[in-house]
């Protein structure tokens, strides 16, 4: 972690208005049975670092946000999140009674922050991503904060786009436009367009062109500008969120939330804000040259634990006792059982107290189908 | 099970002198982690029949032996064996304080039975083999009993040789000699020789010749003849066993056994008795046309559960909840966990509360090596 001396202290510094929002939702079905409703992905240490993903996210943002955080998560995860981040005060936590997609979750964070201070610049960073090195990430966020504060009073919605390392068909892309002239953000550019997950052929063209970045869903923006676009594109969602936000720091919070939240439409923040804002010319991008992974499946876990790549079997989990003979792959263990692998290549084994997954790296993406089938068969106790 | 009417009642019937000896030893290391020191192979139902192997062995012999049994097992397994065969009286059980190989185990059974009745014909049948159909096995044992009682007062040591179905390199073979003329045993022949486990090339020749049978370690013999050969070939072992047998049904049993048993040499019954007896012309063979398997590894378990071969994954274990997608192989479950297999072929999974094995049918024979490695690493709690 860089020292705080990387954070410039000159006033007026837009970083003083910065609040880090951490949406911690999503079960991570493709990481079943490790990740599941009761113990979602962000509560696991998937990189062998000793930190859960949410704790690592918090630590990565701390030098920029200092104590200014808002974590949005499900009510069921309150205790686990507080154990992971004991620094959080009660007002730093937004608990959803039921999941409502990222539009409502991030929109509510924007609305609450707006009511607390309309000058706030929020930065939204999912709790379940892996990033390194932290210093490169922090430099990109810092540029994004400066860019978000630029352009007169209005500012920009600034995505952080990841420089692609391979022609992924699993991510959306951002096409960069012209360079912006922002003080403190030399690499900021306009966004020409957001594009959906491409075919492999298209992804290869994107990669070759050098004009495209991965859309990692990270953005920094003045909350006022977020809410302006939300009001324009999703007036019903905006009205409901403002009603909740008005009541949030009052005794009426629970009553109003219980009444309004269940009625809100489910929509991703990309559709509710980012794409229409880009069309309106209000979105910028700062490229991030850091390593980034959304840990989409167990093959990713194998990649992310490359520190042990001298061993053929990557073992995740403190208690695991793995014995391998002519075997390779990934073992994720949530138990203290002895696991013996003999003569099996590229295997993926996930061992938890009540469920066991055995697959291959090649088939790791199919785990979601297994979970759907278990759901259909009524074996929901392990989901 | 055939009715008792298959057992001839004409006197003097040598079957009335028949006692079934069931050596129940051997951990079955290649079936780890299902089979282990605390729960050896014979205490498992490996065929999905609803019976453990030792119970099935008892039931298969019951029409011939009636209540005349002697089970030789380790002291640690007394309670489990009695739960499996509640019919056993205290005098039907021989408990070893430490394992001493088959020479001492079967030799002690012979000596005890000899002291109780020197005219006894013993039949020794390991507790951990799978045989079907029972009726064909019983007919072969019956022929073996008649053969064992033949040849004047001396009798024969009669092995039951299995008609080979493939050129196995995992078993010893018996070369048949000339036909014997034994009343009640039309298929009995002399034994030309016992041969050790052959190479594949040699095994193929054996199979093609039609003169060879698998040595399954099953034999029927007058106890007096057994002891005669034991005395000639292993005088020290013989003397020790006779000393224990003299004290067995007296108050001195524990004292004498504790003193003598630990001093006895470890030797297989094949070397101590069968092979020298064959060289002396005292061994006959009755071919068995039944299906036989010593369940040597998990691939065997897959074969033995072919009743479910319409399904790609054979599941052994009552509590198992297996979900398979593009997968094939064998799952042996000793837990109630959900097991999801995705995109993995010919896999062998053995799931127990404290140890998990993942291998392939092809590598199933290597399990013993894993157990040795675990032993070397000190992970003996799961062995």
TrEMBL record, chains A, B:
Domain Nucleotidyl transferase: from-to ranges: 20-307
Coiled-coil blocks: none
Pfam families linked to this entry: ManC_GMP_beta-helix, NTP_transferase
Originating organism: Sinomonas halotolerans
Domain MannoseP isomerase/GMP-like beta-helix: 325-374
Name of the protein: Sugar phosphate nucleotidyltransferase
Alphabetical list of PANTHER family matching this protein: MANNOSE-1-PHOSPHATE GUANYLYLTRANSFERASE
């Amino acid at each position: 972690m860089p020292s705080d001396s990387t954070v410039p202290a000159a006033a007026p510094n837009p970083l003083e208005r910065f609040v880090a929002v951490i949406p911690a939702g999503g079960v991570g079905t493709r990481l079943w049975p490790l990740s599941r409703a009761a113990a979602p992905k962000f509560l696991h240490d998937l990189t062998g670092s000793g930190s859960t993903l949410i704790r690592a996210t918090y630590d990565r943002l701390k030098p920029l946000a200092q104590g200014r955080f808002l974590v949005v998560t499900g009510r069921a995860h309150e205790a686990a999140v507080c154990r992971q981040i004991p620094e959080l005060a009660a007002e730093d936590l937004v608990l959803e009674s039921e999941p409502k997609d990222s539009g409502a979750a991030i929109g509510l964070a924007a609305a609450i922050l707006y009511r607390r201070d309309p000058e706030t610049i929020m930065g939204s960073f999912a709790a379940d991503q892996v990033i390194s090195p932290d210093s490169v990430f922090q430099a990109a966020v810092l540029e994004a904060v400066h860019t978000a504060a630029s352009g007169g009073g209005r500012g920009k919605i600034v995505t952080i786009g990841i420089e692609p390392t391979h022609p992924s068909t699993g991510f959306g892309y951002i096409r960069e436009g012209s360079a912006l002239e922002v003080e403190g953000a030399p690499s900021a550019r306009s966004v020409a367009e957001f594009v959906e997950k491409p075919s492999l052929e298209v992804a290869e063209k994107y990669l070759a062109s050098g004009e495209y970045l991965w859309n990692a869903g990270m953005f920094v923006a003045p909350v006022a500008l977020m809410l302006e676009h939300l009001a324009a594109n999703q007036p019903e969602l905006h009205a409901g969120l403002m009603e909740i936000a008005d009541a949030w720091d009052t005794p009426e919070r629970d009553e109003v939330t219980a009444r309004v939240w269940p009625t809100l439409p489910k929509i991703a923040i990309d559709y509710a804000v980012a794409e229409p804002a880009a069309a309106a010319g209000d979105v910028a991008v700062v490229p991030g040259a850091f390593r980034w992974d959304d840990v989409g499946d167990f093959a990713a876990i194998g990649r992310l634990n490359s520190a042990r790549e001298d061993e053929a079997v990557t073992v995740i989990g403190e208690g695991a006792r793995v014995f391998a003979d002519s075997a390779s792959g990934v073992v994720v263990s949530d138990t203290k059982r002895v696991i013996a692998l003999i003569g099996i290549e590229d295997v993926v084994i996930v061992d938890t107290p009540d469920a066991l997954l055995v697959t291959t790296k090649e088939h790791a993406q199919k785990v979601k189908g297994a979970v759907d089938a278990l759901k259909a068969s009524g074996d929901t106790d392990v989901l």
